[in-house]
Amino acid sequence: MSKQATPPKVFGFLPDDTPPIGAMLSLGFQQFLTMFPATVLVAILTKFDVGVTLLASGLGTIIALLVSKRKIPMYYGSSFSYIAVIVTVMSKFAPDCYNSTAVYCPEGVKIVQVGILLTAVFEILIGLLIMQVGKSALDRVLPPIVTGSMAMVIGVALANVALGNAGNWAAPEVASVTWIVAFITMFATVLFSVYLQGKGLIGMLPILLGAIFGYIVAILFGLVHFETVASAAWVEMPKFTFPAFTNPDAWGMALSIALIFIATVPESTAHLYQMSLYIDELAVEMKRKPYNIKELIGLNLVADGADDLVVGMLGGAAGTNYGENNSLMAITRNYSVAVLMAAGGMAIIFGFFGKLVALVNTMPAAVVGGLSIYLFGVIGMQGVALIQSEKVNLFDPKQLAVGAVILICGIGGNLALPNGVFPFNVPYLFPNGIPAIVFAAILGIFINSIFLIFKAPAVRGDK
Fold first, then answer.
1. Which distant-in-sequence residues (6+ apart) come within 8 Å of 297 by Cβ?
2. What backbone phi and psi angles, to 5 degrees, belong to 426?
3. DSSP string spanning 182-222?
4. Residue 216 neighbours by CB under 8 Å, 6+ apart
5. How many Cα neighbours within 13 Å face the side chain of 227?
6. Whole-model pTM?
7. How many independent structural domains does the chain possess?
8. Rounded to 5 degrees, what are φ and ψ at 293?
9. Is 314 domain-assigned?
10. What is the C-alpha radius of gyration for the chain, rounded to an integer number of angstroms?
11. Which of 227, 354, 432, 447 could link 236 by a cystine bridge, Cβ 3.0 to 4.6 Å?
């Protein structure tokens, strides 16, 4: 009688599993490493304090995990979606600092914080609303043509920032060198992202690898200076700031910043669906009940808001849950909330590491620009991907109208208008004019609402 073969043991950790301490720390460090390059890059581009941004990322993640009742495994890092409107705020209210070689502009940060907090309020309210009425109501107000077009606007409108850092803002005597370093960095990052895909942890770190490669090239060209690293303390208190609640300019810009959540809501929802699929597949293999976290869309947005509450109060860059970390979880088959909390704890600790913060701040603008050319372009292309995946009928005049207006007013307005602001002064809400990206979102939602109220003729293939 032949002996029955023992089925292979299924490896992995589900959300409510707690791995052994060694596995938890190693897996947690991988999660920290995965979020690190993009999170600090946002801080560099917006001139937020790197230490605060790291600490707020870790603490915000832990709070969000607790708010979601430890059911939704997500890591929260800095969002690229808010960069354009934050740059507008910095250029308008802290121009001397933002246009200098300074790496941190606290006066501008304080104004932006109010907007991040308002973003948190919006996310929480929408999350609670979805928990009551369902996601379909939100999809009618923010259909894929609006959210996808807004993602395109956000990515392409940042072209000025990317090319400025790459060399357009450099002094004439070094401009040729900075352009070379920027494009070497860009090419290296693209190659890493393509040829290391599917290669485990290293395949999840193309931005970090591209930054390191570009940094080494910049050293060879004499663009890196280490004086600040040598003088920095090993342990240093992050530069926390308090939101400028008493500044009328802050309240004037807060709505402009908060409305960018239009682009982050579908991103967050897509991440939730992706994670639900992976988690339930592993649960079936392990002969455990499916978790069905895709049903927790409202709670997920409340958790997003909880993260932004923490970030906004401390002075870190606006956050979002990271697709890179989700992909790493899928690769390692680790969805343990305990691991993500460990990663959050590591981010908090590294936020106090003064020499690390100083080293990050030595990254030349050319390297940042090279990374940004690729990353900002990817944001724009993700908008195209969203419209494609949702099968939006671009032969429908309604869809074309919404998308066309958003693209021209958002991209054209940001690049062509002074400070990227439409000169429509609305007391209290937009006393200094309406930023182009925000104006484009408002127009898109308004035009879409007209089509909802006054039914237009149906078009074959309309979604």
1. 127, 130, 135, 269, 272
2. -110, 115
3. HHHHHHHHHHHHHHTTTSGGGGG-HHHHHHHHHHHHHHHTT
4. none
5. 2
6. 0.88
7. 1
8. -70, -10
9. yes
10. 22
11. 354
Question: How many other CB atoms are there within 10 angstroms of residue 102's CB atom?
Answer: 13
- Which residues, other chains included, contact 431 with Cβ-Cβ below 8 Å and sequence gap of 6+? 248, 249, 252, 425
Q: Say if 10 falls within a structural domain.
A: no
Contact in structure between 205 and 34 (CB atoms under 8 Å): yes
Q: What number of residues does the chain have?
A: 463
DSSP for 311-353, written as a single string: HHHHTPPPEEE-HHHHHHHHHHTB--HHHHHHHHHHHHHHHTB
Spatial CA neighbour of 373 closest among 178, 148, 189: 189
Assign residue 198 a region: left if phi > 0, alpha if psi is -120 to 50, beta otherwise?
left
Q: 78: helix, coil or strand?
A: strand
Structural domain of 286 = 21-453
Q: How many angstroms from the chain centroid is the CA of residue 276?
A: 20
pLDDT tens per residue across all 463 residues of the chain: 445 555 556 678 999 999 999 999 999 999 999 999 999 999 999 999 999 999 999 999 999 999 999 999 999 999 998 998 899 899 889 999 998 989 999 999 999 999 999 999 999 999 999 999 887 877 888 899 999 999 999 999 889 899 999 999 898 889 999 999 999 999 999 999 999 987 877 887 899 999 999 999 999 999 999 999 999 999 999 999 999 999 988 887 898 899 888 888 888 888 898 899 999 999 999 999 999 999 999 999 999 999 999 999 999 998 999 988 998 898 888 999 999 999 999 999 999 999 999 999 999 999 999 999 999 999 899 899 889 988 999 999 999 999 999 999 999 998 899 888 999 988 877 888 899 999 999 999 999 999 999 987 777 655 5
Determine, yes or no, domain membership for 448. Answer: yes
Nearest to 213 by CA among 192, 196, 199, 228: 192
Question: Which residues make Cβ contacts (< 8 Å) with residue 446, sequence separation at least 6?
Answer: none
Euclidean distance between CA atoms 163 and 215, whole angstroms:
17
Tell me the DSSP string of 403-458: HHHHHIIIIIHHHHSGGGEES--BTTTBTT-EEHHHHHHHHHHHHHHHHHHSPPPP
**Could you give the CA distance from residue 244 to residue 257 in angstroms, rounded to a whole number?**
14
- Amino acid in position 16: D
Residue carrying the six token digits 């600092």: 97
Residues 164, 166, 171, CA angle at the centre, nearest 5°? 70
- Report the SS3 class of residue 395: coil
